[in-house]
TrEMBL record:
It comes from Emiliania huxleyi (strain CCMP1516). It comes from the Eukaryota. One of its GO terms (cellular component) is Golgi apparatus. This is Nucleotide-diphospho-sugar transferase domain-containing protein. Residues 1-15, 40-56 have a biased composition (Low complexity). Residues 121-412 form the Nucleotide-diphospho-sugar transferase domain. One of its GO terms (molecular function) is arabinosyltransferase activity. Transmembrane segments: none annotated. It holds the Pfam family Nucleotid_trans. Residues 1-20, 25-56 are annotated as: Disordered.
Amino acid sequence: MSRLGDGSHAAASGRSAHEHATVRFGGSFEGSPRSTEQLAPPRAAPSAAPPVRAGAPAASATNANFLKPGGGSKLLFNEAARQQLAPYAGAAGTTVHFTFGSSVMVDFVQNWLHFARRAALKPLLVGAADAALLSFCNNKSVPAAAISPDLDVWTYERKPAQEGVYQIKTQWAYFRHHDSDFLEMGLVKVAFLWELLVAGLNVLISDLDVVWLNGHWARWMAYGGAEPPLPEASLLAAADILVSTDELNAEADLAGRRPSHGSDLNTGVVFLRCTQGSKAMVQAWRQAMLGRKGDKHLNENVNDQSLFQGVVRGAELRGGELDELLRRSGAVDRLGLAEATSTRRVYRALGGPPCLPQERCAPSSFTFGTLPMRPFSGGHTWFNQNVQDMAGHEQPRNEPITVHFTFQFGDTGTYPHGKRQRAREAALWAVDPPEYFTEGVFVALDGPTYSEAEQAAVYARFPSWSPQRHMHMDAPQRQAVRDLLGLATAVGGIPVLPSLWCHCDRYWGFLKNCRFPMVPNMNLPFNCPQDALYDPTRWAAKGVRWREHTFLDNPNARPGVRVIRIANHHLRRLCRWLGSSQANANFNKLARYILTESSRYCPQEDMGGYGGGSFDWQNPFVAYNCTWGFHYPSPFPEGKAACSATGEQRERSSSAGGLLSSLLPPVNAAGEPLAGADGVNVAERPNSTTCPRIMLCDYNILPDGSMTKPIRWCNIEGYNGMKQDHLPATRAMLAKMPDGRCPYPPGDIPGMPGFDRRGHYIGA
């Protein structure tokens, strides 16, 4: 067996990170010289309801001519769309299942289609924002539509005749991370919605990063279908607009009120009933976007969703208004449920005129409600809270219907790596090619990364609110990942990440008892996704081949796949030697970069009285105290003495005895590692902390493995952005401290040794 003696690491496979198989909608996949049947992922077994034409009995009929050229629609439908939608032309109450995107997200388009078809959703329609995606859909017989090229989405007036289809032109690949382009994407999305509503269709739009687990949407959204609405949905099923939310607290969500503080409406899943109210909302939404055109203060947080928040807000319907809503929907048998506490509430808001500006009509109100967070789950509820396993998850009112990959990290302006990685971890990614599951040798950990005794010792030392509990428990996990990468490098294999655990939730705000404040009863620790601890974009940028922790449980990883399994206590005994000093040095550069992450944890319990009315983040005496991670684990030894008393003898033995003998540490007659085998007895870091108690941590690792700035221990040691006015006071204070540095905080009690509650040093 050969070993990597030239410094190579588990690197790129030669396949582009964006090159995925394409779904052939009979269940097989293309994208390689062979085409094989891919098994269904283990989660989300199909539970499809029959195709539903759902809506209020009084719904208007679909425009029978909207599919025809010259039929009045600004949409250009491909042949597959015309064939799928034709049976519904002229029918009343048809709901089209719609998604929208550009060619850079084509693999997410494929994934959305795979699960939507698996859930038996129909009719389906993909809105193509560029010609490349429309071409893909044409070639794969995917029902799709594009905006007519002579429509100006800003003015909604015709431009001089042009060939082709409307296209967004941008230098950014992933629009979510570009301000003006994402705003224009919103206008294009609204144009699609308007044209579909005008055609007489209800629209159930979901983002490309939404996975449909089953087809039970109508139980929450519509009367008149094969499945009647749940009692809790008696009012929702009559409202004009329904929208998912970022609500995280299941108890707070029960009544269906606007999300609690810190949560928002989320346009990942939106139902628009074909009513005047829905048209009024869409036009108000469009006007809100137009109002930001040319705004110099645009950023990625000003987008169609944030502007939707400002439009969809209003007063709760009560009393006779509720009765009127139900009577209009023909649901008089539900009148007794209108005021029930278990029934999700509905609201009324003032929209715009339900017509185009050129047509002139009076403004109209619309009704709206929020979809429940357990059936329509987000990234935090699915991956952190495990809503799919919560008590009562099998009941219809709690059964998960969709998963939206929100609350994740690791997306860039090029590609949403974090979303894809979470989908893979949950076995909700269906577009990897067959060789993803068969290529090479996989190296996996057999068992946990730390023992119960190790956890008990850390828990006894640090209270539940302290991020240091999280940092100390992460250290052995990060060491195991390093060693798996090393072993995979040595054997030319692909590491399978171990199951990772978080003992503190990752949150951009202030934690309470190491949790989001709005989710006080969340279970800790929890089995967390990779992007909670690592940045997958770094791994992708370096061409590292790796697999998600659920990989070997995926049925597509067929029996016979070659796997090296090793328990962590044996992994720790292997010699950290890759064949040469240069190979170890190259590996260390890679490991430093991909095993470092910059993430802060700011406990409310350790604010020290800071953050009051005089808070100024540039003032180190009132700035917040946050613990930062994650530091890379100790590097492999780079000297020739690694793993034996004589490095030259070690290299000879590895050449003569093969790779595995070179990995094993030298032992005595009792089989115990010899003293001085520094490749085995690496001095490990006890925790993954970088800056232990500071507002902004300037420490990080660059792609070449070099460090940005030294680690600071407290705010007065300085950070980027600190006002220079405070330098004299901080320097005078630091001069009084031992060795001119802040004392390292123990982390088991709030505060830092020698500081008062105002952040001033008073001595030991």
